[in-house]
Amino acid sequence: MSVSATEPATPWRRPQVTQGWLARLFDSKAFLVVACLTPALGLLLVFLTYPLGLGIWLAFTDTHIGRGGSFIGFENFESLWYDRVFWGAVFYTVFYTAVATVLKFALGLWLALLLNENLPFKSLLRAVILLPWIVPTVLSAIAFWWMFDAQFSIISYVLVDKLGLMDHYIDFLGTPWAARWSLVFANVWRGIPFVAISLLAGLQTISPSLYEAALLDGASSWQRFTRITAPLLMPILAVVLTFSVLFTFTDFQLVYAITRGGPINSTHLMATLAFQRGIPGGQLGEGAAIAVSMIPFLILATLFSYFALARRKWQQGEDNE
Predict the structure, then answer these.
(1) Which of 29, 58, 62, 110 is the most exposed place for a label (fewest CB within 10 A)?
(2) Which residue ranges does UniProt annotate as crossing the membrane (predicted)?
């Protein structure tokens, strides 16, 4: 029997497939969020939260290397209050951070503005400027230690033996203030590339049409910088400044490799003093207390970045609230 031509055809339907429990589980957004965040949270817990919590706990104990300690409250902090070496380290840490950050930003911004122009061999210049940042810190510290050596300094050799501008070699690391300025110079040399390349990336996000319009209005170079470059660069300036302050304030390798806190504890940063008291000195509790004392300064730097980023509406040309 043949099928009538007028009889409607049965429409095709996709066969229903029943999902297993595993497929339904991976379709769940809540499960995917937990599965993706758990490894990151585990790493943060093991490598950040636990060491930080242990350090804070040790700051309130009299723990020494080789034996446990007991809870002593604020005794470590009370002893630091009357410790002249500690306050000297606080002073030099603030001085070192402030001076080095100002110099790095002044020179880094100048380099960024220079590299943002149409220069010959601009790509090569960018690569050369990155070299101080790429070289390992310890290798840089050894090179600076040789340059600042009282007997074999290349700087003293040129000034005394070649140019005849001085009659004696400079003892860069033998006197407190000479050693302090030498470390600032070394830190600035290493930190300029980070500031320059970061600000250069920010400069290249600014539309050239803004500068062309300013030129048509007769704006000077200083007016273009203050009215266009600085406001639009402020968000990345805040981020780079915060990271620069954090890196400089917690610097350890450069200072410890060149001076180890000398002469006469004059170049100790809080980080190097905490290490000296906690590891070679064996007083883990006191070293942890010095390290914990750095936290308020780091929080202030982070808050600065937060409130500076709140002014990001400058990029949209809106008024700040």
Answers:
(1) 29
(2) 30-50, 89-115, 127-148, 191-211, 232-250, 288-309
